[in-house]
Design goal:
The chain is of the alpha/beta class and 450 residues long. It contains 15 helices and ten strands. Helices cover 44% and strands 15% of the residues.
Protein backbone atom coordinates (compact mmCIF):
# COMPACT_ATOMS: atom_id res chain seq x y z
CA UNK A 1 0.00 0.00 0.00
CA UNK A 2 2.82 2.36 0.81
CA UNK A 3 4.38 1.69 -2.57
CA UNK A 4 1.09 2.37 -4.36
CA UNK A 5 0.67 5.63 -2.48
CA UNK A 6 4.22 6.66 -3.34
CA UNK A 7 3.64 5.78 -6.98
CA UNK A 8 0.45 7.81 -7.16
CA UNK A 9 2.12 10.77 -5.50
CA UNK A 10 5.05 10.56 -7.94
CA UNK A 11 2.66 10.43 -10.90
CA UNK A 12 0.70 13.39 -9.53
CA UNK A 13 3.78 15.57 -9.06
CA UNK A 14 5.21 14.57 -12.47
CA UNK A 15 1.90 15.45 -14.15
CA UNK A 16 1.93 18.84 -12.40
CA UNK A 17 5.49 19.50 -13.59
CA UNK A 18 4.53 18.68 -17.19
CA UNK A 19 1.44 20.89 -16.98
CA UNK A 20 3.54 23.70 -15.54
CA UNK A 21 6.02 23.25 -18.41
CA UNK A 22 3.23 23.44 -20.97
CA UNK A 23 1.73 26.54 -19.32
CA UNK A 24 5.07 28.30 -19.27
CA UNK A 25 5.52 27.66 -22.99
CA UNK A 26 1.97 28.80 -23.74
CA UNK A 27 2.41 32.07 -21.86
CA UNK A 28 5.71 32.93 -23.53
CA UNK A 29 5.12 31.51 -27.03
CA UNK A 30 1.51 31.97 -28.06
CA UNK A 31 2.28 30.86 -31.61
CA UNK A 32 2.76 27.33 -30.24
CA UNK A 33 -0.72 26.99 -28.75
CA UNK A 34 -1.90 24.34 -31.23
CA UNK A 35 1.30 22.32 -31.17
CA UNK A 36 1.37 22.11 -27.38
CA UNK A 37 -2.08 20.53 -27.26
CA UNK A 38 -1.91 18.04 -30.12
CA UNK A 39 -1.09 14.82 -28.27
CA UNK A 40 -2.40 12.89 -25.28
CA UNK A 41 -0.01 12.81 -22.30
CA UNK A 42 0.23 9.34 -20.80
CA UNK A 43 2.39 8.14 -17.86
CA UNK A 44 4.17 4.83 -18.46
CA UNK A 45 6.97 3.67 -16.18
CA UNK A 46 7.01 0.04 -17.30
CA UNK A 47 8.10 0.36 -20.93
CA UNK A 48 10.19 3.52 -20.84
CA UNK A 49 12.50 5.33 -18.44
CA UNK A 50 12.36 8.62 -20.34
CA UNK A 51 9.93 10.63 -22.49
CA UNK A 52 8.88 9.80 -26.05
CA UNK A 53 6.26 10.87 -28.57
CA UNK A 54 5.04 9.55 -31.91
CA UNK A 55 3.13 12.68 -32.90
CA UNK A 56 -0.08 11.42 -31.33
CA UNK A 57 0.67 10.29 -27.77
CA UNK A 58 3.36 11.53 -25.38
CA UNK A 59 4.51 8.90 -22.88
CA UNK A 60 6.76 9.56 -19.92
CA UNK A 61 8.23 7.94 -16.84
CA UNK A 62 7.12 9.98 -13.78
CA UNK A 63 10.38 9.20 -11.96
CA UNK A 64 12.34 10.50 -14.95
CA UNK A 65 10.41 13.79 -14.84
CA UNK A 66 11.01 14.25 -11.11
CA UNK A 67 14.70 13.38 -11.46
CA UNK A 68 15.14 15.89 -14.27
CA UNK A 69 13.36 18.61 -12.27
CA UNK A 70 15.54 17.90 -9.25
CA UNK A 71 18.71 18.18 -11.37
CA UNK A 72 17.67 21.37 -13.19
CA UNK A 73 14.43 23.26 -12.80
CA UNK A 74 14.41 24.26 -16.48
CA UNK A 75 15.09 20.76 -17.81
CA UNK A 76 11.48 19.43 -17.97
CA UNK A 77 10.14 22.48 -19.82
CA UNK A 78 13.04 22.44 -22.26
CA UNK A 79 12.69 18.70 -22.90
CA UNK A 80 8.96 19.09 -23.43
CA UNK A 81 9.59 21.80 -26.01
CA UNK A 82 12.27 19.58 -27.54
CA UNK A 83 9.67 16.83 -28.14
CA UNK A 84 7.05 19.25 -29.46
CA UNK A 85 9.48 20.66 -32.02
CA UNK A 86 10.31 17.14 -33.20
CA UNK A 87 6.62 16.82 -34.02
CA UNK A 88 6.36 20.25 -35.64
CA UNK A 89 9.34 19.42 -37.87
CA UNK A 90 7.81 15.95 -38.53
CA UNK A 91 10.99 14.15 -37.49
CA UNK A 92 8.86 11.21 -36.34
CA UNK A 93 7.70 10.57 -39.92
CA UNK A 94 10.76 8.51 -40.77
CA UNK A 95 11.44 7.20 -44.26
CA UNK A 96 14.10 4.68 -45.20
CA UNK A 97 17.37 5.76 -43.63
CA UNK A 98 20.95 4.60 -43.99
CA UNK A 99 21.88 5.31 -40.39
CA UNK A 100 19.25 5.54 -37.64
CA UNK A 101 21.65 6.86 -34.97
CA UNK A 102 22.77 9.60 -37.33
CA UNK A 103 19.18 10.63 -38.07
CA UNK A 104 18.39 10.79 -34.35
CA UNK A 105 21.42 12.99 -33.78
CA UNK A 106 20.59 15.28 -36.70
CA UNK A 107 17.04 15.76 -35.40
CA UNK A 108 18.29 16.57 -31.90
CA UNK A 109 20.84 19.10 -33.17
CA UNK A 110 18.20 20.83 -35.31
CA UNK A 111 15.76 21.07 -32.40
CA UNK A 112 18.25 22.09 -29.70
CA UNK A 113 19.82 24.72 -31.95
CA UNK A 114 16.38 26.22 -32.62
CA UNK A 115 15.67 26.30 -28.88
CA UNK A 116 19.00 27.98 -28.10
CA UNK A 117 18.31 30.54 -30.82
CA UNK A 118 15.16 31.65 -28.98
CA UNK A 119 17.38 33.01 -26.17
CA UNK A 120 14.73 32.53 -23.48
CA UNK A 121 16.12 32.38 -19.89
CA UNK A 122 13.70 29.73 -18.66
CA UNK A 123 15.02 27.34 -21.37
CA UNK A 124 18.67 27.56 -20.35
CA UNK A 125 20.25 24.38 -18.98
CA UNK A 126 23.80 23.36 -18.07
CA UNK A 127 24.47 22.00 -21.57
CA UNK A 128 23.35 25.16 -23.34
CA UNK A 129 26.76 26.86 -23.54
CA UNK A 130 28.45 23.70 -24.76
CA UNK A 131 25.76 23.21 -27.41
CA UNK A 132 26.14 26.80 -28.61
CA UNK A 133 29.91 26.42 -28.77
CA UNK A 134 29.59 23.35 -30.99
CA UNK A 135 26.96 24.96 -33.18
CA UNK A 136 29.01 28.12 -33.76
CA UNK A 137 31.71 26.03 -35.39
CA UNK A 138 29.24 23.84 -37.25
CA UNK A 139 26.66 26.25 -38.70
CA UNK A 140 28.98 27.52 -41.46
CA UNK A 141 29.26 24.00 -42.88
CA UNK A 142 25.58 23.90 -43.89
CA UNK A 143 23.53 26.82 -45.18
CA UNK A 144 20.16 25.52 -43.99
CA UNK A 145 19.94 24.20 -40.45
CA UNK A 146 17.50 21.32 -40.69
CA UNK A 147 17.62 17.66 -39.73
CA UNK A 148 17.80 16.59 -43.38
CA UNK A 149 20.78 18.85 -44.14
CA UNK A 150 22.61 17.91 -40.94
CA UNK A 151 22.00 14.23 -41.61
CA UNK A 152 23.28 14.50 -45.20
CA UNK A 153 26.37 16.37 -44.06
CA UNK A 154 27.24 13.83 -41.38
CA UNK A 155 26.53 10.98 -43.78
CA UNK A 156 28.89 12.42 -46.40
CA UNK A 157 31.57 13.05 -43.78
CA UNK A 158 31.10 9.54 -42.33
CA UNK A 159 30.96 10.78 -38.76
CA UNK A 160 32.73 8.27 -36.44
CA UNK A 161 30.65 6.29 -33.94
CA UNK A 162 32.52 7.91 -31.04
CA UNK A 163 31.53 11.37 -32.25
CA UNK A 164 27.91 10.29 -32.74
CA UNK A 165 27.77 8.98 -29.19
CA UNK A 166 29.38 12.12 -27.73
CA UNK A 167 27.15 14.53 -29.63
CA UNK A 168 24.04 12.47 -28.90
CA UNK A 169 24.66 12.83 -25.17
CA UNK A 170 25.10 16.58 -25.64
CA UNK A 171 21.91 17.21 -27.65
CA UNK A 172 19.51 14.48 -26.56
CA UNK A 173 16.25 15.65 -25.00
CA UNK A 174 14.01 12.61 -25.34
CA UNK A 175 13.84 9.10 -26.80
CA UNK A 176 12.95 8.45 -30.45
CA UNK A 177 12.21 4.74 -30.21
CA UNK A 178 8.50 5.25 -30.95
CA UNK A 179 9.38 6.63 -34.38
CA UNK A 180 10.60 3.24 -35.52
CA UNK A 181 7.81 1.02 -34.19
CA UNK A 182 4.72 -0.09 -36.05
CA UNK A 183 1.33 0.34 -34.41
CA UNK A 184 1.21 -3.41 -33.85
CA UNK A 185 4.57 -3.35 -32.05
CA UNK A 186 3.39 -0.48 -29.86
CA UNK A 187 0.25 -2.39 -28.94
CA UNK A 188 2.21 -5.50 -27.99
CA UNK A 189 4.46 -3.46 -25.69
CA UNK A 190 1.40 -1.90 -24.00
CA UNK A 191 3.03 1.50 -24.29
CA UNK A 192 -0.16 3.45 -23.86
CA UNK A 193 -1.65 1.58 -20.91
CA UNK A 194 -5.30 2.49 -20.42
CA UNK A 195 -5.14 4.80 -23.42
CA UNK A 196 -4.45 1.93 -25.84
CA UNK A 197 -7.63 2.71 -27.75
CA UNK A 198 -6.19 6.09 -28.73
CA UNK A 199 -3.36 4.46 -30.66
CA UNK A 200 -3.96 3.67 -34.31
CA UNK A 201 -3.57 0.42 -36.17
CA UNK A 202 -2.56 1.47 -39.67
CA UNK A 203 -0.05 3.45 -41.68
CA UNK A 204 -2.93 5.64 -42.84
CA UNK A 205 -3.21 7.04 -39.33
CA UNK A 206 0.44 8.15 -39.35
CA UNK A 207 -0.13 9.94 -42.64
CA UNK A 208 -3.09 11.79 -41.14
CA UNK A 209 -0.98 12.73 -38.12
CA UNK A 210 1.78 14.03 -40.40
CA UNK A 211 -0.76 16.11 -42.35
CA UNK A 212 -2.10 17.59 -39.11
CA UNK A 213 1.39 18.60 -38.02
CA UNK A 214 2.01 20.08 -41.48
CA UNK A 215 -0.92 22.45 -40.96
CA UNK A 216 0.39 23.35 -37.51
CA UNK A 217 3.87 24.06 -38.91
CA UNK A 218 2.42 26.29 -41.63
CA UNK A 219 0.43 28.29 -39.10
CA UNK A 220 3.45 28.61 -36.82
CA UNK A 221 5.60 29.91 -39.67
CA UNK A 222 3.01 32.52 -40.60
CA UNK A 223 2.64 33.74 -37.03
CA UNK A 224 6.39 33.74 -36.38
CA UNK A 225 7.15 35.73 -39.54
CA UNK A 226 4.41 38.22 -38.72
CA UNK A 227 5.75 38.59 -35.18
CA UNK A 228 9.32 39.07 -36.41
CA UNK A 229 8.26 41.66 -38.97
CA UNK A 230 6.24 43.56 -36.37
CA UNK A 231 9.14 43.56 -33.93
CA UNK A 232 11.78 44.19 -36.62
CA UNK A 233 13.73 41.09 -35.64
CA UNK A 234 14.89 37.96 -37.42
CA UNK A 235 12.71 34.89 -37.01
CA UNK A 236 15.78 32.72 -36.45
CA UNK A 237 16.43 29.02 -36.73
CA UNK A 238 12.91 28.06 -35.73
CA UNK A 239 11.46 29.81 -38.76
CA UNK A 240 14.24 28.40 -40.94
CA UNK A 241 13.26 24.88 -39.93
CA UNK A 242 9.59 25.66 -40.47
CA UNK A 243 10.31 26.92 -43.98
CA UNK A 244 12.10 23.68 -44.68
CA UNK A 245 9.16 21.65 -43.38
CA UNK A 246 6.62 23.73 -45.30
CA UNK A 247 8.61 23.90 -48.52
CA UNK A 248 6.50 22.75 -51.41
CA UNK A 249 7.59 19.43 -52.84
CA UNK A 250 7.44 19.21 -56.62
CA UNK A 251 6.69 16.30 -58.91
CA UNK A 252 9.08 16.62 -61.82
CA UNK A 253 7.18 13.99 -63.80
CA UNK A 254 3.96 16.00 -63.68
CA UNK A 255 5.85 19.20 -64.39
CA UNK A 256 7.40 17.72 -67.52
CA UNK A 257 4.04 16.52 -68.79
CA UNK A 258 2.82 20.10 -68.85
CA UNK A 259 4.92 20.47 -71.98
CA UNK A 260 2.96 17.75 -73.77
CA UNK A 261 1.33 18.45 -77.13
CA UNK A 262 -1.82 16.88 -78.48
CA UNK A 263 -1.47 14.25 -81.18
CA UNK A 264 -3.41 11.40 -82.66
CA UNK A 265 -2.40 7.82 -81.93
CA UNK A 266 -3.95 4.50 -82.97
CA UNK A 267 -5.69 3.42 -79.81
CA UNK A 268 -9.24 2.34 -79.03
CA UNK A 269 -11.05 5.22 -77.38
CA UNK A 270 -14.06 3.95 -75.39
CA UNK A 271 -15.06 7.52 -74.50
CA UNK A 272 -15.90 8.54 -78.08
CA UNK A 273 -18.95 6.41 -78.88
CA UNK A 274 -22.37 5.57 -77.47
CA UNK A 275 -22.58 2.14 -75.84
CA UNK A 276 -26.37 2.11 -76.20
CA UNK A 277 -26.20 1.83 -80.00
CA UNK A 278 -23.35 -0.63 -79.77
CA UNK A 279 -25.16 -3.05 -77.44
CA UNK A 280 -28.47 -2.57 -79.31
CA UNK A 281 -26.81 -3.73 -82.52
CA UNK A 282 -25.37 -6.79 -80.80
CA UNK A 283 -28.83 -7.75 -79.57
CA UNK A 284 -30.79 -6.93 -82.73
CA UNK A 285 -28.44 -8.30 -85.40
CA UNK A 286 -26.91 -11.21 -83.49
CA UNK A 287 -23.42 -10.01 -82.51
CA UNK A 288 -23.30 -7.29 -85.19
CA UNK A 289 -22.59 -3.90 -83.53
CA UNK A 290 -24.08 -0.82 -85.13
CA UNK A 291 -21.10 1.36 -84.30
CA UNK A 292 -17.48 0.31 -83.95
CA UNK A 293 -15.32 2.15 -81.40
CA UNK A 294 -12.98 4.82 -82.78
CA UNK A 295 -9.52 3.45 -83.36
CA UNK A 296 -7.71 6.65 -82.51
CA UNK A 297 -7.50 8.79 -79.43
CA UNK A 298 -6.41 12.37 -78.93
CA UNK A 299 -3.85 12.31 -76.12
CA UNK A 300 -1.13 14.52 -74.71
CA UNK A 301 2.26 13.35 -75.87
CA UNK A 302 5.62 14.89 -76.49
CA UNK A 303 7.03 14.97 -80.03
CA UNK A 304 9.29 18.05 -80.36
CA UNK A 305 11.34 18.93 -77.33
CA UNK A 306 14.63 20.55 -76.28
CA UNK A 307 16.72 19.70 -73.24
CA UNK A 308 19.37 22.34 -72.62
CA UNK A 309 22.18 21.56 -70.18
CA UNK A 310 24.23 24.31 -68.63
CA UNK A 311 27.74 22.83 -68.56
CA UNK A 312 29.34 25.63 -66.60
CA UNK A 313 31.40 24.35 -63.67
CA UNK A 314 28.63 24.61 -61.07
CA UNK A 315 26.26 22.17 -62.80
CA UNK A 316 28.65 19.60 -64.17
CA UNK A 317 29.11 15.97 -63.28
CA UNK A 318 26.82 13.26 -62.00
CA UNK A 319 23.99 15.69 -61.27
CA UNK A 320 23.57 16.49 -64.97
CA UNK A 321 23.46 12.82 -65.91
CA UNK A 322 20.87 12.18 -63.21
CA UNK A 323 18.68 14.98 -64.58
CA UNK A 324 18.91 13.74 -68.16
CA UNK A 325 18.19 10.18 -67.06
CA UNK A 326 15.11 11.31 -65.13
CA UNK A 327 13.86 13.36 -68.06
CA UNK A 328 14.41 10.39 -70.35
CA UNK A 329 12.48 8.10 -68.01
CA UNK A 330 9.50 10.44 -68.15
CA UNK A 331 9.66 11.02 -71.89
CA UNK A 332 9.88 7.34 -72.80
CA UNK A 333 6.79 6.41 -70.75
CA UNK A 334 3.89 5.23 -72.87
CA UNK A 335 1.65 8.12 -71.88
CA UNK A 336 3.98 10.95 -72.85
CA UNK A 337 6.22 9.76 -75.66
CA UNK A 338 5.42 9.40 -79.35
CA UNK A 339 6.99 6.43 -81.11
CA UNK A 340 8.87 8.85 -83.33
CA UNK A 341 10.19 11.99 -81.70
CA UNK A 342 12.38 14.97 -82.42
CA UNK A 343 14.40 15.68 -79.31
CA UNK A 344 17.46 17.93 -79.18
CA UNK A 345 19.85 17.66 -76.23
CA UNK A 346 22.01 20.76 -76.28
CA UNK A 347 25.02 21.36 -74.06
CA UNK A 348 26.00 24.99 -73.62
CA UNK A 349 27.78 27.41 -71.33
CA UNK A 350 28.44 30.84 -72.83
CA UNK A 351 28.25 29.20 -76.28
CA UNK A 352 26.71 26.12 -77.90
CA UNK A 353 29.00 23.17 -77.21
CA UNK A 354 27.01 20.22 -78.57
CA UNK A 355 23.63 19.48 -80.16
CA UNK A 356 22.54 15.86 -80.36
CA UNK A 357 19.32 15.04 -82.18
CA UNK A 358 17.33 12.09 -80.82
CA UNK A 359 14.55 10.46 -82.86
CA UNK A 360 14.22 7.02 -81.26
CA UNK A 361 14.59 5.46 -77.84
CA UNK A 362 17.57 3.48 -79.10
CA UNK A 363 19.39 6.72 -79.92
CA UNK A 364 18.50 8.06 -76.49
CA UNK A 365 19.91 4.93 -74.84
CA UNK A 366 23.13 5.25 -76.84
CA UNK A 367 23.44 8.92 -75.92
CA UNK A 368 23.12 8.24 -72.21
CA UNK A 369 25.61 5.40 -72.43
CA UNK A 370 28.26 7.58 -74.12
CA UNK A 371 27.35 10.96 -72.67
CA UNK A 372 30.24 13.40 -72.10
CA UNK A 373 30.03 16.97 -70.90
CA UNK A 374 31.56 19.78 -72.92
CA UNK A 375 32.27 23.38 -72.07
CA UNK A 376 32.81 24.24 -68.38
CA UNK A 377 32.95 27.95 -69.18
CA UNK A 378 30.72 30.84 -68.10
CA UNK A 379 26.93 30.95 -68.27
CA UNK A 380 24.94 32.94 -70.85
CA UNK A 381 21.44 31.86 -71.82
CA UNK A 382 21.09 34.06 -74.90
CA UNK A 383 23.16 31.95 -77.34
CA UNK A 384 21.04 28.88 -76.58
CA UNK A 385 17.75 30.64 -77.31
CA UNK A 386 19.16 32.25 -80.45
CA UNK A 387 20.28 28.83 -81.65
CA UNK A 388 16.94 27.15 -80.92
CA UNK A 389 15.06 30.03 -82.56
CA UNK A 390 17.15 29.46 -85.69
CA UNK A 391 16.19 25.78 -85.64
CA UNK A 392 12.52 26.78 -85.44
CA UNK A 393 12.96 29.19 -88.37
CA UNK A 394 14.57 26.40 -90.41
CA UNK A 395 11.56 24.11 -89.75
CA UNK A 396 13.61 21.69 -87.68
CA UNK A 397 10.56 21.31 -85.42
CA UNK A 398 6.94 20.69 -86.43
CA UNK A 399 5.59 22.09 -83.21
CA UNK A 400 8.13 22.84 -80.51
CA UNK A 401 6.12 22.95 -77.34
CA UNK A 402 8.79 23.36 -74.74
CA UNK A 403 12.41 23.79 -73.74
CA UNK A 404 13.81 22.78 -70.38
CA UNK A 405 17.04 24.46 -69.31
CA UNK A 406 18.94 22.76 -66.51
CA UNK A 407 21.15 25.43 -64.95
CA UNK A 408 22.39 27.23 -61.88
CA UNK A 409 20.56 30.35 -63.01
CA UNK A 410 23.36 32.88 -62.87
CA UNK A 411 23.61 34.21 -66.42
CA UNK A 412 22.15 36.64 -68.96
CA UNK A 413 18.57 35.98 -70.04
CA UNK A 414 16.99 36.92 -73.40
CA UNK A 415 14.97 40.11 -73.22
CA UNK A 416 12.00 38.69 -75.19
CA UNK A 417 9.88 35.61 -74.73
CA UNK A 418 10.64 32.88 -77.28
CA UNK A 419 7.80 31.40 -79.38
CA UNK A 420 7.65 28.32 -77.13
CA UNK A 421 7.44 27.59 -73.41
CA UNK A 422 10.75 27.74 -71.57
CA UNK A 423 11.38 26.32 -68.12
CA UNK A 424 14.49 26.77 -66.00
CA UNK A 425 15.13 23.87 -63.65
CA UNK A 426 17.43 24.48 -60.71
CA UNK A 427 18.85 21.78 -58.49
CA UNK A 428 19.47 23.37 -55.14
CA UNK A 429 19.34 22.05 -51.59
CA UNK A 430 19.52 25.52 -50.04
CA UNK A 431 16.43 27.25 -51.47
CA UNK A 432 18.28 30.17 -53.08
CA UNK A 433 16.03 32.83 -54.57
CA UNK A 434 16.78 32.42 -58.26
CA UNK A 435 15.62 35.22 -60.54
CA UNK A 436 14.07 34.42 -63.90
CA UNK A 437 12.25 36.65 -66.44
CA UNK A 438 8.48 36.96 -66.20
CA UNK A 439 8.01 34.82 -69.31
CA UNK A 440 10.01 31.89 -67.94
CA UNK A 441 8.81 29.03 -65.77
CA UNK A 442 10.94 28.33 -62.69
CA UNK A 443 11.23 25.02 -60.90
CA UNK A 444 13.59 24.45 -57.97
CA UNK A 445 14.15 20.78 -57.22
CA UNK A 446 16.09 18.85 -54.62
CA UNK A 447 18.28 15.91 -55.49
CA UNK A 448 15.77 13.50 -54.01
CA UNK A 449 13.02 15.00 -56.16
CA UNK A 450 15.05 14.20 -59.26
Amino acid sequence: MADDAKKKKTEKIAAEILQMSKNKLLVNMRFMDMSLNQFVICPNSESTSCTACDGSIYIYDPVHILTAYRLEENLPVRNFLHTVLHCVFKHFFVNTLVNRDLWDLACDIAVESAINDLKLPYLNILKTDQQIQFFEGFKNKIKTVSAEKIYSYFLDKRLPDESIKRLSALFKGDSHFLWYLTEEQKARLNLYGSLAEVSGTSEAKMILIAERWSLIALRMQTELETFAKRRGTQAGLLTQNLKEVNRERYNYTEFLRKFAVRGEIMKINPEEFDYNYYTYGLKLYDNMPLIEPLEYKDVKRIRDFVIAIDTSGSTSGELVQTFVQKTYNVLKSSESFFTKINLHIIQCDAAIQEDVKITTQREFDDYLKNMKLHGMGGTDFRPLFSYVNSLVDCDEFDNLKGLIYFTDGYGEFPSKKPPYDAAFVFIDDECNNYKVPSWAIKLVLRKDEI
